[in-house]
C-alpha cells in the first residue's frame, strides 16, 4: 500500500513539474489573493508612502505564505482525507467527493485542479450508444467472419438507414 502511494505521489509531482515547466515563471501554484484597488491619487505624503509600502510588503508576505509546494499539498491532502474518512466511518457522514474538493480548493489548489480534470465524467449521446449497441449485435459470435471494414460499413449503413427512415416519418406528419 505504501509503495503504491509513493508511486502515485511521484507521478503527481511529475505532472506538477510538467505543468509548471510549460508556464511562465510568473505563474506559480499559489492561492491568488485579489489585488486591492488603488485609492485615488492625492497629494503624496510620507505617511501615504509608508502605508503603501507596508501594504505591498504585507500582500507579498501573504502570497509567499499561501504558496506551497506539491509535497506540502500532498501532506495536507493526506491529513484532510484521513479526517474525512474518520467522519464518514465514525460519524456516518455521507461521502461526497465533489463537496470535499470544493471545500478544500483553497488548501490544496493544484490537487483540486487535478481532481477537477480527472473526476469529470464525459457524457455520451444516445446515437453513439445506439451505434455501439448495433456494433455489438453485428459482431456477435455467429458473424465472427466479418472483417473489421465490413463491420464498420454495416454499422454506418444501419445508422444512415435509421436516420433516413426517421426523417421520412417526420416529414409525413
Task: Describe the protein's architecture and organization.
The protein has 2 domains: 2-32 and 44-118, no CATH class; 126-172. It is 68% helix and 0% strand. The chain has helices spanning 2-21, 46-66, 70-91, 97-103, 109-118, 126-138, 148-172. The protein is elongated.
Question: What is the strand and helix layout of this fold?
Answer:
Elements: H1 2-21, H2 46-66, H3 70-91, H4 97-103, H5 109-118, H6 126-138, H7 148-172
Helix pairs in contact: 6-7
Write a compact overview of the structure shown.
Helices cover 68% and strands 0% of the residues. The chain has 173 residues and is mainly alpha-helical.
The rounded Rg comes to 28 Å
How many structural domains does the protein architecture include?
A: 2
Which structural class do you get from the secondary structure elements? mainly alpha
Largest sheet: none
Percent of residues in helices: 55-70%
**SSE arrangement, N to C:** HHHHHHH
User: How many DSSP-defined strands?
Assistant: 0
Q: If you average the pLDDT, what whole number results?
A: 75
Estimate what percentage of residues fall within beta strands. under 5%
Q: Any descriptors?
A:
RNaseH-like_sf, protein dimerization activity, 68% helix, mainly alpha, HAT C-terminal dimerisation domain-containing protein, HATC_C_dom, elongated
Amino acid at each position: 500500500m505504501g509503495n503504491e502511494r509513493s508511486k502515485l505521489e511521484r507521478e503527481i509531482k511529475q505532472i506538477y513539474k510538467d505543468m509548471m515547466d510549460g508556464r511562465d515563471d510568473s505563474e506559480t501554484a499559489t492561492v491568488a489573493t485579489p489585488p486591492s484597488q488603488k485609492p485615488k491619487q492625492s497629494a503624496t505624503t510620507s505617511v501615504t508612502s509608508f502605508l503603501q509600502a507596508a501594504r505591498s510588503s504585507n500582500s507579498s508576505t501573504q502570497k509567499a505564505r499561501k504558496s506551497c509546494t506539491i509535497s506540502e499539498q500532498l501532506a495536507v491532502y493526506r491529513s484532510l482525507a484521513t479526517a474525512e474518512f474518520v467522519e464518514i466511518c465514525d460519524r456516518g457522514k455521507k461521502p461526497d467527493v465533489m463537496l470535499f474538493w470544493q471545500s478544500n480548493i483553497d488548501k490544496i489548489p493544484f490537487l483540486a485542479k487535478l481532481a477537477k480534470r480527472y473526476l469529470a465524467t464525459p457524457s455520451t449521446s444516445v446515437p453513439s450508444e445506439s451505434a455501439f449497441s448495433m456494433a455489438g449485435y453485428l459482431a456477435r459470435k455467429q458473424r465472427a467472419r466479418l472483417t473489421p471494414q465490413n463491420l464498420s460499413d454495416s454499422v454506418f449503413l444501419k445508422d444512415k438507414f435509421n436516420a433516413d427512415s426517421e426523417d421520412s416519418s417526420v416529414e409525413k406528419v
